[in-house]
Design brief:
Elements (H helix, E strand, L loop, with lengths): L1 H28 L7 H15 L9 H24 L16 H12 L9 H4 L2 H31 L9 H26 L10 E12 L5 E9 L4 H10 L20 H25 L3 H28 L2 H4 L25 H14 L14 H12 L10 H21 L4 E2 L2 E2 L2 H27 L11 H16 L14 H29 L17 H25 L1 H9 L1
Antiparallel strand pairs: 1-2, 3-4
Length: 583
């Protein structure tokens, strides 16, 4: 009962915060006056003047796409250079050397695509400069790019027989200045109040109460008498890693570390931050297209899928496995002061409810941060987060991209329904024709395609086996999860998978780039086509896209595409592991 109350509380708080924040986002992104305008308006206008941006410019979809790709490419190469040259850059008191070329490429591609996949441990591999200037800057601008594309799509549906979608540069500026910066200032201060550090001090060395003997890779043993506490600007990066659906942790164990997530309140703040903006995007969408029912319909479709996944993970983790139960020798049922279930890989201070909720929220939100180790989840408990990523991160998903991905599925659902009744499909008052359908299919299938191609090639190479922590079905799950995380622009991992090799770094990096930009370009193509169309009058035969029937149809289409695409692979991985567990 306690676990159910916790999960219900998280969900109610999320909705209560998302509704007003969605209204605020809509006003801010449309250039309307907000309660921050008096303070942040001069900053916005100063950026326009400094960079010679015309906020009133109406770009074609091709120019808008070109700006988005060029900006992202520049960010990719700049961050790649920073990572490789960090040994010669300031704010490096530990004297950490630059990364290898392939790790630098993987990390740059990861943060530019809002994935934040990490083939390294942040506190030991990156300097303060790389963390604060390289990664944190990308944590702000990459979600801003996707949010800009979402509002370009909204204008495409809302405007009638026009040419322009707005200014990419103005949209990115508004997203950063009005949405991300104020929100993360509040979150960072809240985290500092809970003990998350922010400084530029050298790492602190302390004496162990009891020396520990550690076996090294070569088999020799050493006695460790001292430990190191990583310092640095952690609170500022933790805030935006959560709210920006980024996920890359300052420390290697991410938000399972007490340095990033020290208290129950910090855990609640970080968990709500995971889904706040993606959920708010639904309500911003409804307000911006002048029909709030459309936003609510998409929100409830996402929410039902989220609840279903959360139920699976919570039940599986609470029940544990026969191997953990040891024929009744270990109690799986919760008791006073004892959570029961599968506690392997989980922080005892969080327990199963908070860990399961975070695991589902982070994979639904395209975030990837963790407060428990997903590699230690039960077979079906680990499959649910994996499937959330494989669906294309459309169950709220990343900022902007999650919603425009779900809109692609909504167009596919409308098209299928139109075929059933023999009518030309319409969505939001505009006819959907062959070009839009081809682009919508690309939005829906790009993620499954790159995940399956990448994981297929990886499993065919004998060297991949050397990166696995486990063999058999769970080993395949490690590979499949890695490429699902990259293809879903998520960034979480089954932590036993060692991905810092040239092939894995490059292949995972390419998967991240393809999964980010193919749907984005297809979305802008849809927006460019829709903005030129006239609006069709609603008639008795028009399919409603706001009622419960359409919500059910949309959920069915999303699950059907995911099941058809990934069922064979899942059968060889987590499902096979589940059957082996029962044998």
């Amino acid at each position: 009962m306690n676990a159910i109350l916790q999960i219900a509380l998280y969900t109610v708080l999320l909705i209560a915060l998302a509704v007003p924040f969605g209204r605020f986002m809509s006003r801010a992104m449309e250039g309307e006056k907000t309660f921050f305008s008096r303070v942040l308006g001069p900053c916005e206008r100063g950026i326009y003047k400094l960079l010679r941006i015309d906020p009133g410019e109406q770009m074609s979809w091709k120019k808008y796409a070109g700006c988005a790709v060029a900006f992202s490419a520049l960010s990719l190469f700049a961050l790649w250079a920073v990572l490789m040259l960090q040994g010669r850059l300031p704010w490096n008191p530990q004297g950490i050397e630059g990364t290898s070329w392939h790790l630098g490429f993987n990390t740059a591609a990861s943060f530019v695509t809002n994935t934040n996949w990490q083939s390294y441990s942040g506190e030991s591999a990156l300097s303060y400069f790389s963390q604060a200037i390289g990664l944190t800057v990308q944590n702000f601008v990459t979600p801003a790019v996707a949010l800009a594309v979402l509002f370009a799509l909204i204008r495409g549906f809302r405007r009638v027989q026009k040419q322009g979608l707005g200014s990419f540069w103005a949209d990115v500026t508004r997203a950063v200045v009005y949405v991300l910066l104020p929100l993360n200032l509040v979150i960072a201060l809240a985290l500092v109040s809970q003990g998350v550090m922010t400084n530029l001090k050298d790492y602190q060395v302390y004496e162990l109460v009891e020396p520990a003997t550690v076996q090294q890779e070569d088999g020799t043993e050493i006695t460790v008498t001292r430990g190191i506490i990583p310092m640095g600007p952690q609170a500022s990066q933790v805030a935006i890693k959560q709210s920006g659906t980024n996920g890359g942790g300052y420390n290697g164990v991410n938000s399972a570390s007490p340095l990033e997530n020290p208290t129950p309140l910090s855990n609640l703040i970080e968990m709500l931050s995971l889904l706040l903006i993606p959920a708010a995007c639904c309500f911003a969408f409804g307000r911006s297209i002048r029909d709030k029912r459309q936003g609510r319909a998409l929100f409830f479709a996402m929410l039902l899928l989220l609840v279903a996944a959360l139920s699976v993970v919570a039940v599986m983790e609470q029940n544990g496995t026969p191997q953990l139960a040891q024929d009744g020798a270990v109690a799986m049922a919760p008791a006073e002061g004892y959570p029961g279930g599968n506690m392997e890989g989980k922080e005892t201070r969080f327990g199963i409810a908070a860990s399961a909720t975070w695991a589902v929220y982070t994979t639904a939100a395209s975030n990837g941060s963790v407060n428990c180790m997903h590699d230690s989840l039960t077979p079906l408990g680990g499959m649910a987060p994996m499937l959330l990523m494989q669906l294309g991160e459309v169950v709220f998903g990343g900022i902007g991209c999650g919603l425009y991905g779900m809109i692609g599925f909504a167009m596919l659902a409308v098209f299928i329904a139109g075929l059933m009744v023999g009518r030309t499909p319409e969505y939001l008052g505009k006819k959907i024709e062959p070009f839009e359908m081809r682009m919508a299919v690309l939005v829906c299938l790009a993620t499954p395609l790159v995940i399956l191609i990448g994981s297929c090639i990886a499993t065919l190479l004998p060297a991949t086996a050397d990166s696995l922590n486990n063999g058999g079905a769970h080993g395949l799950s490690e590979v499949l999860y890695a490429y699902s995380s990259a293809g879903g622009n998520n960034g979480s991992a089954f932590a036993g998978f060692h991905a810092n090799t040239p092939f894995l770094n490059v292949s995972i990096g390419l998967v991240m780039l393809a999964a980010r930009f193919l749907p984005m370009l297809a979305t802008l193509a849809i927006a460019g086509s829709m903005v030129q169309k006239k609006r069709t009058a609603v008639s008795a035969g028009t399919l409603s896209t706001t009622n419960a029937m359409f919500v059910g149809l949309l959920i069915f289409i999303v699950v059907l595409v995911g099941a058809l695409s990934f069922f064979p692979a899942l059968s060889l991985g987590p499902i096979a592991e589940f059957t082996q567990m029962l044998a």
